[in-house]
Amino acid sequence: MNRNEVAAALSEIGTLLELLGENPFKTRAYGNAARLIKSMDQDLPTLVEKGELDSLKGIGKALAEKITLLVRDGRLPYLDELRARVPPGLLDWLRIPGLGPKKVRAIHLALGISTLGELEYACQENRLRDLDGFGQASQDKILPGIDRLRRNAGRFLQPVVQQEADRLLELVRGVPGVIRAEVAGSVRRRSETSKDIDIVVASPDPEPVMEQFAASDQVEEITGRGPTKCSVVLKSGPSADLRVVDELSFPFTVMYFTGSKDHNIAMRSRARAAGLKLNEYGLVPENGGDSLPCADEAAIYSALDLPYIEPELREDLGELEAGSQGELPALVSDSDICGILHCHSTWSDGSASIADMASACRERGYTYLGISDHSQAASYAGGLSPAQVLEQHEEIDRLNADLNGTFTILKGIEVDILADGKLDYPDEIMARFDLVVASVHSRFNLSEQDQTDRILKALDNPFVDILGHPTGRLLLAREPYALDLRTVVRAAAERNVAVEVNAHPSRLDLDWRELAVGLRHGLLTSINPDAHSPAGIDHVRHGVGIARKGWCTPEQALNAWPLPRLQDWLKERRTGR
Ligand code: DGT
Ligand code: CA
Ligand code: ZN
């Protein structure tokens, strides 16, 4: 096991012990050890080999033994034993907001229940309202939590499905006889989450393709197999469907399985209006005959008098109308991104120095980096005091002097929007930044009106250049806070404040649907990785996918602008203050 896996196992032990009612010192020791292992500088296997684990603060002999087993064998009988003693349903309950191990245990013991369905029923029957330590309010919170768990079950974030899809695609493309292969479905449309991976292959000989696909080391279980179709469940969670067709059908099958369903329906009715029938095998005249030959998807669109429609746009949100009028946007792409804004460094909660973050950006071909560490209210994230801001700016000046114009670091900040809508520093500090991202990190539970007013007030503040992760959602984990987002986005557009597309795969916030609406009203965006390490910078491509789904052009994304243009924009905003 590697370091992260060991940390996850230790924290699982802590949770299981808590669910079993063990004493808090013991449970906390595992939680602490997990954090320590995750963040330590030393090499874990080396420490294990030398038997020096217990030199780490907080790691006693017993813990050292368990960690050694985890690193060496990849498993730990003690953990297996604990897992067997805890009803698995209780772990589901833990994913409901507001239910920690203590409360889960209390409900389990008091009501003698242990599954999600039982918990739902208990809430409906007001059993929690009448339970000591709970009440109407906590009961009311649990039901929507269960709902959301069910809705999210079986969906996966982009990094998982995209990586798996890329590997599977590479695998099938290498099979002899395969002419073409493509990922389809929501993965190709770059949806924020996907249920499964759809792959379409053109080959005269399906058998060997399906053979190799099923034999991939990514596969956990084969769940279905026909003459031209194979379904599997992958070890990482999602399932994957492979379909093998002949070369002539391929573009039609890819288009069909790329979807979306609504786009397909709109395409079919457009075909019908032209006296044609469109399905997954071809485009046939309604009165019979052979399919019109189409070498690729572009040819299918062209046969229906449309320009090629990028997969990201295939959501039946006006793409056919825009296409037929020649008004499809030239979408922003990875290669348009000139610089990276909204990154953290070791000054707050990042794991790399500003210099290292800058070199990582340079290596990736970017020409500028806007460092934006947390402000003082975010004390849990090492937010900067005003004095630290001044020190950080000296460091950035030194680095920029060394870089001598080959690369530029902007003095940014991710400033907290306080509960009353004010910013987290006095004006004389705010005035020192080149670039200000303002974000909400606290008081998620305000009413919709109050939360909206709070953010509108921040947008009125002349120091704010970009609104960060505007809804606070965490995909598959946390709902957005109550907010009149439409009003906020419109207000940002009117005030010439950009709203970021936070590219972290768990956020992808601003949502692309609202981005599209905003862009039509003159909104600017910025595709920001919110990176806390060099590797985090690469998340920017997830944001590019979302921006594309929102019909965003390079003109509309600040960080697709060369530095001088961005600096002009920032300067202009500053002279208006
Ligand atoms: P997902 O898997 O839930 O993330 O989303 P998709 O879009 O990948 O959905 P999936 O895997 O169920 O189906 C793949 C595509 O196949 C879908 O985007 C459109 C097409 N499709 C599936 N079922 C239907 C249908 O009943 N009618 C039409 N017109 N197309 C369908
Ligand atoms: Ca799918
Ligand atoms: Zn943030």
| Low-confidence runs | none
Q: Label the structural class.
A: alpha/beta
Could you name the CATH topology of the largest domain?
TIM Barrel
Q: Mind describing the biggest β-sheet? A: 7 strands, parallel
Q: How many strands in all? A: 16
Measured by DSSP, the beta-strand proportion falls in 5-15%
The coarse overall form would be globular
The level-1 CATH class of the largest domain:
Alpha Beta
What keyword list fits this structure?
577 residues, alpha/beta, DNA polymerase, domain 1, Beta Polymerase, domain 2, Beta Polymerase, domain 3, seven-stranded parallel sheet, five-stranded mixed sheet, 25 helices, 16 strands, globular, binds 2'-deoxyguanosine-5'-triphosphate, binds calcium ion, binds zinc ion, DNA-directed DNA polymerase, hydrolase, DNA polymerase beta, EC 4.2.99.18, ubl conjugation
Structure write-up:
The protein has 577 residues and is α/β, with parallel strands linked by helices. It has 4 domains: 3-150, DNA polymerase beta, N-terminal domain-like (DNA polymerase, domain 1); 153-247, Beta Polymerase, domain 2, CATH 3.30.460.10; 253-328, DNA polymerase, thumb domain (Beta Polymerase, domain 3); 334-575, Metal-dependent hydrolases (TIM Barrel). It is 45% helix and 14% strand. It has 25 helices and 16 strands. It has a 7-stranded parallel sheet with strand order 10-11-12-13-14-15-16. It has a 5-stranded mixed sheet with strand order 2-4-7-6-5, with helices on both faces. Strands 1-3 form a two-stranded antiparallel ribbon. β15, α22 (512-520) and β16 form a beta-alpha-beta unit. α1 runs antiparallel to α2, α20 (448-460) packs parallel to α21 (485-494) and α21 (485-494) runs parallel beside α22 (512-520). The longest helix is centred in the C-terminal third of the chain and has 18 residues, at 386-403. Residues 185-186, 194-196, 198 line the site of calcium ion. Residues 1-315 form the DNA-directed DNA polymerase X domain. Its cofactor is Mg(2+).
